[in-house]
Amino acid sequence: MARLLPDPTFYPSPRMAIEAPTETLAYVALLSSGENGMKDALGVVDTNPDSADYGTLVGRLDLPTAGNELHHFGWNACSSHLCAYAPNPHMERRYLVLPGTHSSRIHVIDTHPDPRSPRLAKVIEGEEVMAKTGYAAPHTVHCGPDGIYLNALGGPDGDGPGGIFMLDHETFEVRGAWERDRGPQHLAYDFWWHLGHEVMITSEWGTPNMVRGGVNPELLLAGKYGSALHVWDLRRRTHLQKLELGAEQQMVLELRPAHDPRRSYGFVGVVLSLKDLSSSIWTWYRDEQTGTWATRKVIEIPAEPADPSVLPPLLKGFGAVPPLVTDINLSLDDRFLYVSCWGTGELRQYDVSDPFEPRLVGSVHIGGIVRRTSHPKDADRPLNGAPQMVEISRDGQRVYITNSLYSPWDAQFYPDGIRGWMAKLDVKPGGGIAFDKEFLVEFEDGLVPHQVRLEGGDASSDSFCYSE
Amino acid sequence: MGWLFAVARGLQERDRRAIWRALGPLAVGHACAIAAAIVFVATVGRVAPLGFMRWMVAAILVLVGIDGLRRHRHVQLKGMRVSARELATWSFLMASAHGAGVMVLPFILGVAVPMPAGMSEHHAMSSVARSSGAATAGLVNVDAVAIVAPAVHTLGYLVATVVLALVVYERLGVRVLRRAWINFDLIWGVAMVGAGIFALVP
Known about the structure:
The structure holds two protein chains of two kinds.
Chain A: H1 14-17, E1 25-32, E2 41-46, E3 57-62, E4 74-75, E5 95-99, E6 106-110, E7 119-124, H2 126-133, E8 136-144, E9 147-154, E10 163-167, E11 174-177, E12 191-194, E13 199-202, H3 208-211, H4 217-221, E14 228-233, E15 238-244, E16 249-257, E17 265-273, E18 279-286, E19 293-301, E20 304-305, H5 313-316, E21 320-321, E22 325-330, E23 336-341, E24 346-351, E25 359-365, E26 390-392, E27 398-402, H6 407-413, E28 421-427, E29 433-442, E30 447-454
Antiparallel strand pairs in A: 1-2, 1-30, 2-3, 4-5, 5-6, 6-7, 8-9, 9-10, 10-11, 12-13, 13-14, 14-15, 16-17, 17-18, 18-19, 20-21, 22-23, 23-24, 24-25, 26-27, 27-28, 28-29
Chain B: H1 2-12, H2 17-47, H3 50-70, H4 84-97, H5 100-108, H6 120-135, H7 142-172, H8 177-180, H9 184-199
Helix pairs in contact in B: 1-2, 1-7, 2-4, 2-5, 2-7, 3-5, 3-9, 5-6, 6-7
């Protein structure tokens, strides 16, 4: 519905969004494999410290089905709707769009009128998505100025290429594949953009056939998983550049471009180096001299030696736990980069004021394949899973983490079965993170949490068109 | 919306000259839209009776107005770094789609229409239209109006665009968008329907 004034959760610049009020609710994707008749769900967690229900699940919308593999959902509208070139400022941030990576189904959920009791507004069946886009396994949602952008891991047959498609942000009609010329791009994982530079960046994981059965050691050791970034002309929808990180760099995942639309750099995490099982963070940037894009490795996190007897079968032969960096997130002031080490059970905080010289300024441990570190709320009880999805409040003062990665991988790396939890960290002003001792949400058996979205927006939900 | 695009370019490039560079193409596109509407009506007017013209213009205005009220449909630029030609084309389409050109037509047809508040760039039209409107029996004076109307209208548009862009860029900052960006589509849609009805008043 049209508003008379812009949605108050839209901010022209990231710096203004930092002044946004504290979120009182968080939405969490809850994944079910279908055991015991459970369905996938969207959980609502109270994040208001003044509330009696603080740090508890206060709402849950069960979807009609299970096994959708709900991944990186997002809003129908956000701050990008204030962009001058395609303004839609009077739309509401209201609907959450949940892509199901295994079912290709897309659920649209209405958070009005009661944000604590979201309602299912529309289901787009996987067949329709596949028929209209030629893609399957939708994974990530970003709200663009002119519509909802999603990406998909591959085609209906489970092979590549994966790519981008769009939904209408008012009617949720599937608009079709996005690319006009994909060049050499075949593998897909994440995407985001530099609106001010008219550039989209995409990353590479694997096709549905390469990831659905878990990590395939043969493909991995042969270096067949993704190892590159792709740069696109956002306006012309054409491929511009492939940025190869090296064949030993396997699985190039989360993309976090600088929020300031004037800046032309960003960060991407690589899960595994075949050389030494390390994970790494790379900075991509535009070379002002040539106008082309380039990458540089700026962080390397080593694997930790471990007793093979406590390792899952996949890792026994290596005698080490890889850090498995599988999510990263950048605060709205472009200052702090958070890095989830899902293998070793650590969340790291880097000061990336200089994007080429990150400084490690904070670290906490929780869970982990070997460590099984407990949460301070219950210091005697070991936890499994580890920091995976990480979301930052707009003011940068609170960080939320959940512990499930991707069902087939969860089973490989945590064969005892992940017990789902969500935790919260408080950020010290100059850097440094610590657990909020009161905040540990534990989900019932059979439901594991993935992406978190915060009420009104967060550090990975919005794009901005104005600098200050 | 041209003014906001100009502001965005200024901020992105950290250079107020980028605002001025955006203005030329915006003005050209706007002028062309109005000229095109007038030429269209003048051409049809040579063969069609005035009564038919009134009904046609009224129908177009009401339909465009209702469509604007029903959906957020905008002619959109594809990105922030478009060329001068794309910007002019966008300005042309934007002015056409939002009916700025069609809105001039009731005047040419000899009907004075009160302008909605807030559409200051269109105020300049009223006086021109009234003077020409009084003398218009049929479409005798259309040729003169076809030149004066787009010129005056575009000048008004340009002044409004420059003033808005500079005030926001230099003084207010884009923060003002949060509180002052009124949904003119809503108001504009109502105005269009109103103008359509007025076009039928003899």
